[in-house]
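Thread title: Can someone regenerate the structure for this chain?

I was given the following input by a collaborator and told the matching structure tokens would be attached. They weren't. Posting the sequence so someone can regenerate them.
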Amino acid sequence: MNLKSLTGPEAKSPAQTRRQLLDAAGDVFAEAGFRHATVREICRRAGANIAAVNYHFGDKEALYAEVLRESQRRAFEKYPPLLGVSADAPPEDRLRAFIRSFLLRVFDAGPATRFGRMMSRELVEPTEALDLLLKERLRPMAGMLRGMVAEILGRPPEDEEVRLCLFSVVSQCVFFHHCRTMISRLFPEQRLDAQAVDQLTNHIARFSLAALKHLPDAKARKASGTGAGRAVASERRPVSPVRFKSLPKSANGKR
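Best answer:
Regenerated them for you:
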């Protein structure tokens, strides 16, 4: 195969073409998602022949998986989960670093944002690449956060309460990514960029730690010997299901 025919009018090395395809594909996939992105548009932006994707990656699916893997690698190299905080540091310090790292990736204005945007689309329209990413990056990160929460609560990592609290911490972080447009319209005074990271980190960490330390059997509660939260610990009343009244029928007989 003639390599020059795959690199467009100006001769480029295979490595240059591959690099340009990855960069162009990262932008296109982040903007349009996997299903709506086209190989033609990726090659146009990369200045490459339409056959270049098949030559360098095999197909669109393999290119997407490589872009997603590289995007997460770049994002986590720039903002590692603990931001240099020692693994031996108190769990509260590690949790704060974890939250800050998460928000830095969310609000980064450079190429690292591709990972966040592509992951947002993966959560709505998952592809097979998500399973690979779960194995390589997301499951180990979930395990890391789970361990921090378990230490703070003084419970085993597999405890149900640990898992639910993990969900709560992550939900607060992703909220500012998924709901950015709505927040900006409802509260235009709220900054949602890199300058807001310190403010939001402090709020999420303070809010989460206050909740964690007031749950039953939390380490801090045991150490302090205070009785706050004992009422919650001693009884968990079942919640009655909400019952809806029958909805009126519409003109066509449907409710």
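The chain has twelve helices and no strands.
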